[in-house]
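quick one before i forget lol
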Amino acid sequence: ESSCCGMAGAFGMEAEHYEVSMQMAELSLLPQIRAAQDGTLLVANGTSCRHQIKDGASKNALHFAQILYASLKMKEEI
């Protein structure tokens, strides 16, 4: 399950919107990510969402294409 990261593209990167962006992310997304077990695969297709997750929860999220690529690569090796 997920919720909005609060970035809305470049909105959250603008100094005047930083606080509201972080408040939005702290409503649900960042607490859930911090509570996720180690090894949980985090997926976020938006570049700004991945930045918010990294900056706000110190975790790395992958784009769906990265997961698909890794899956196809693993299939090749089998």
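fyi Residues 64-77 form the longest helix (14 residues).
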